[in-house]
Amino acid sequence: MTQPAATSPAEGASQPLLFTPLKLRNLTLPNRVVVSPMCMYSAQNGLANDFHLAHLGQFALGGAGLIFTEAAAVSPEGRISPEDLGLWTDEQIVPLGHVTDFVHRYGGLIGVQLAHAGRKASTYAPWRGRGAVPAEAGGWQVIGPSDTAYNVYYPQPVAMTVDDIRRVTSDFAAAARRALVAGFDVVEIHAAHGYLLHQFLSPLANTRTDEYGGSFENRVRFLLEVVRAVRTTWPTHLPLFVRVSATDWAEGGWDLDQTVQLAGLLRFEGVDVLDVSSGGLTPLQQITPGPLYQVPFAARVKQEVPDLRVMAVGMIDTPAQAEQVLEEGAADLIALARAFLRDPHWPQRAAAEFGLKPTLPDVYARAGW
Fold first, then answer.
1. DSSP element (H, E) containing 275
2. Residues in domain NADH:flavin oxidoreductase/NADH oxidase N-terminal (predicted)?
3. Fewer CB in 10 Å around end: N or C, the chain?
4. What is the DSSP string of 231-267?
């Protein structure tokens, strides 16, 4: 077995922060480069297949420090699309185990993102259509904190009862238990991008008047209960991530101040890394994206909650940009998405650009750098 993520400095070269290890509980990441969760819409009945093995396996061969799967739904109704990956049944464990075995065989580490889409469920994959999937095409009734749809093209949700909230909380815990059996090293809870847990956080989507709506303390209650349930199931020696949207980019919505306050609560509940993204909650959002545009959100969390590790994501494309974020102390980890789709060997190329000698899998060693 080789460890393609490892690098050794060439003569006279210093070790960039991007290629320094990071210890999270009993797990040590060999570098700070993370494959961000990316929806692939390529599963059937939630089952991983050869595509997922090839897609995720290439990142282990390419030297990523940690690889995340796409969002895996914790219940059938929690899928974004009918083609989403899932971990709501034991039948889904073995196919994912083939993926984790391959990644581990080549020295990689892999995490799974657990998710529920809430009112943004039962929609088409981007290249298959727009908006709600009708029942005759495999769609289903969706749920949310309230009965307001994301927009006129999306399904009309049914407001969740307290029993529904407890059921979904149990679904997250059960999915984390299956993730352990499947061989994952990390679990991430998806509370961003306008999906169910984010919907409860934001007053733009959550108009409840019970103990899960209204005040900040009430709106964060569901997420904290999910984190506690997962942390009870997920072993204490393995790290737990949570992905959040730092802001809704819309007046009256979830914002950075609330994110910082939430970060402190999540650290207390046993979360090791906050994965800081933004947006996705409302079509009213006003975003002007650009290189590193979300990094200031991660930096603020890291500054105000210094004992919580932070991962930055969003249009971080080049090795120089990634290193800059780390050097400025804005984050501890760098998550890449489109950059990895363009170049699965991004970490090895980055190492070469920094004057390091990448350690390649034996089967690729003759390629050199």
1. strand 273-277
2. 18-352
3. N
4. HHHS-TTS-EEEEEES--SSTTS--HHHHHHHHHHHH
- Strands 309-313 and 186-191 come out as unpaired
Q: Which of 4, 3, 214, 184 is nearest to 98 (CA)?
A: 184
Could you say which architecture CATH assigns to the domain 7-367?
Alpha-Beta Barrel (3.20)
Dihedral through CA 207, CA 213, CA 219, CA 224, nearest 10? -130
CA distances from 285 to 89, 98, 355 (A): 35, 39, 41
- As a whole number of angstroms, the distance between CA 15 and CA 94 comes to 39
Annotated catalytic residue 195: yes
In the set 195, 212, 293, 364, the catalytic residue is 195
- Residues 50-63 have a mean pLDDT of 98
CA 176/CA 182 separation, integer angstroms: 10
Q: Judge whether residue 13 has pLDDT over 70.
A: no
Contact yes or no for 176/96 (Cβ under 8 A):
no
What pLDDT is attached to residue 366? 86
Helices 346-353 and 319-327 cross at an angle (nearest 10°) of 70
**Cα separation, 253 vs 270, whole angstroms:** 26
pLDDT band at 367 (very low <50, low <70, confident <90, very high): confident
Q: What percent of the chain has pLDDT over 90?
A: 92
